[in-house]
C-alpha cells in the first residue's frame, strides 16, 4: 500500500486530508455563512458543534458496528455533571472539566457496555435505554445532593474552586464564568473552542474509520456470526467502540457545560437519546459527515422554526391578498412555533422513505447526476461510506 | 504512526491555508462597536423576548401568557382600548411605544426545561437583540433564565414563578418578579385553613420535585405547623408524572386527614382528579372529613379538573372576577380580543410587560441598571391587586393575595373559583432576609 496510499475502502489519504481541511474551513467560517440562513449567532453555532460531535461519536458505535444504542444521552448527562463539578471544585478552566468528563463517561460506558453488549439487536437497544432511564431517574431524584434534581446543577460564587484558591484569584462575589486560561467561553470564543474540538473529534473519527480497528468494526456490522466462527472474539472490539463513543458523548456534555455552566437531568432523558439517533439517521448513518449535518438540521429546526410566530408569518406572506394571507398563515402556523416537531417529523419521514441513506445519500445522488452530465468518472469519494 | 503519510500537495496546503485564514478572520466581522449597554436599540423599534412554555406540563399557562404579552404590546403601541394603561397609576406611557420606539417581539418555547429555555433566551439575546426577556411558567426555568439574563446583562421580568428562591436565595439584580410566592401563599392560607379545618389536623404533602415544589412544601408546612397541624409525610413526585395513583394510594393508610397538593398545571389536574377518584374526599379520618388543599390555584387548572375542585381551598395572585377598575379593564380588553377571561398567568405577564415599559419610559433608557432603579421601590396602583410595591431589597412585588375556593355552583366554564378573602398586603409582607429567602442580588449588569 506504500505506493498507492489507498485504504481498504478505496479512499486515498490525500482526499481524506482535503476533506478534513474543507470540513475545518466550513466549520470555522460557520459564523459567516450561517448568518445567511438566520443561524449566525453563537449559541446555535455552539450547539451545532457540540451536537455534531455527539453524533460523530454515536456514529462510531451505530454507523460502524451497527449496535443501536438508545441510551447515549446518559453519557452526555454524566459529562455535563462531571464538568460542572469540576468547575465547582477545581476551577472555571474548561480543560480539566473536559478531561474529567471524558474519563467519567468512559467509566460509565465501560460499566453499561460490559453488561449491555452481551446482547445484540433490539435487546441491546432496550438494555441501553433502560440504563439511560435509570441514570435519568437517579439524577432526577435519588442523587439530588449531587445533581440538584430538576432545578439543575449550577456554579455559585461560594464554590471552593481549589485551583483558583491556590492561585489566589477566587472571586466570591460575582457568578463565575467558564474560561480557557482567561478567555471567556461564552459567545464566539466559546464557539471557536467547540469548533476546534469538533474538528479534532472529526479527525479522530476519520482515523478510526480508516484504521484496521475500524475495518474490524465494519466487519462486525456486516456479519458478526461469521467473525465469531473464524475465531475472532468480537466483544472487546464492540466494547471499545462503545467506550469511545461514550467518551465522545461525555466530551459533548462537557462542552455544553463549558459554554453554559448548568447541568440538568433532562439532558439524560430518553428523548435526548432518541434525538442523537435521529440526527445520525437523518444525516446518514455510517458516513463521516452525515451525523454532523443531521445534528445541524435538527438544532436548526429546534431553534429557528420554533421561534416563528404568527407575526413573523404575516410578514412572510404579506405579498398575498389579505384573505389568502390569513389562510396561508393559519396553515403554515401548524408547522412552525410549537409545531416544529411536526415539521421535523415530516422531513424525517420523507428522508427515510426517499433517501434511506440520509442527507448524505441525497448529496451522493446529486454528485452522481453531475458526474454523468460531465461524462467524467472521478473517484473522489471521501465523503462516501466511511 | 504517521497521520497522513503521503499526498499533502502544495496546492491543497495552500487551499487549506486560505480557508483557515478566512475562518480565523471571521470573528472580526462581528466585533461590535461599543454601545452603552447590550442590544441598545438604534432604529425606530425595540424588541422584547417572550419566552413561554408552548409544550409540556405548563403549555396551557404558556399559551395564555403569550396572548397577554401580545395584548400588552398592542396597548403599549397605542392600539386597542388601552386596557390597564387607563387605570395604571403611572401615566408615563403615552401609547406611542416605549421612548417613542415601536415595540416588536420575538417568541420562544421553553419546553418547561432549563436547557431549552436558556437556549431560547440566548437566541433572543444574541440573534434577535432583545432588551428584555420575560415569561416562564416554572420556577426552575425562571431561575435558570434569570441568571442567564444577569450574566448577559439584560432585564428579566419573571412570569408565573411561585418559588421562594426566585426572589430569595437565587435573586438577581437584573431580575424582577410581580407574581406572589410560596411563603405568601402560606401566610394567606393559614388563617382560612384554621377557620375551616381547625387546629388539629394531620397533613400529607405531595410535592412536585423541583425548586418551586420544595419551597412551597416548606412554606406551607411551616404555616400549618404554626397552627398546630402535624406533617405526616412529604412525598416528592416527578414533574409531569401523568399518573399519580402510586403516590395517592399510600395516603389512605397514612393516618393523614388533609392532603396538600404542591402541584401545578397539568400535574395538579391529574393528581387532584385521581385523588378524588380514589374517594379521598368521601373519607372520614380521625373523625374528620378528609380535606384536600391546593396552595397554588389557577382558573386554567380548575377548568382542567372540572367538578373535582368544588370546595377546595387555595391561593392565587389574581382572579378575573375581581371588581376593581384595573381588573375590569384588563378582563374587558382581553375578552374582546380572545373571547374568554384571562388567567392569573396572563395577568402577571401583562402587568410585567407594562411595568417594564413604564420603567423604561420613566428612566429614559433601556439600560438595565437605570431601568432597574426605576423599578426598585416603585409604588403603583390600578393593576388589579390594589396598591403594590416593587421592593428594592429583593425585587419582589408586595400586594394583596387572594384565597379562593372551588365554586359549588359554577355559572359558566370560567366561573369556577370564588374569592374567599383578599388578604391584605401587610399580612403577606416579610423581611427580605428571613432564612427562607436569604440571598444576594449582586450588582446589576448592563452587558456590553
From TrEMBL, chain A:
Classification of source organism: Bacteria, Pseudomonadati, Pseudomonadota, Alphaproteobacteria, Rhodospirillales
Stored CDD domains: TM_PBP1_LivM_like
Statement: the UniProt record of this protein carries the keyword Transmembrane: yes
Main location: membrane
Name of the protein described by the UniProt record: Amino acid/amide ABC transporter membrane protein 2, HAAT family
Transmembrane segments: 17-36, 48-70, 90-115, 122-143, 190-209, 236-256, 276-298, 342-363
Keyword terms of this UniProt record: Cell membrane, Membrane, Transmembrane, Transmembrane helix
Pfam family membership, one: BPD_transp_2
UniProt-annotated location(s): Cell membrane
An annotated GO cellular component: plasma membrane
Domain of life (superkingdom): Bacteria
Bilayer topology: Multi-pass membrane protein
InterPro entries the UniProt entry points to: ABC_transp_permease, LivM-like
GO molecular function, one term: branched-chain amino acid transmembrane transporter activity
Protein source organism: Thalassobaculum litoreum DSM 18839
UniProtKB/TrEMBL annotation, chain B:
Domain of life: Bacteria
Entry keyword Signal: yes
Record's signal peptide: none
CDD domains the UniProt entry points to: PBP1_SBP-like
Coiled coil ranges: none
Stretches assigned to the Leucine-binding protein domain: 45-407
InterPro entries noted in UniProt: BCAA_transport, Leu-bd, Peripla_BP_I, TAT_signal
GO biological process per UniProt: amino acid transport
Keywords: Amino-acid transport, Signal, Transport
Pfam families, per the entry: Peripla_BP_6
Family: Belongs to the leucine-binding protein family.
Protein's name in the database: Amino acid/amide ABC transporter substrate-binding protein, HAAT family
Species, as recorded: Thalassobaculum litoreum DSM 18839
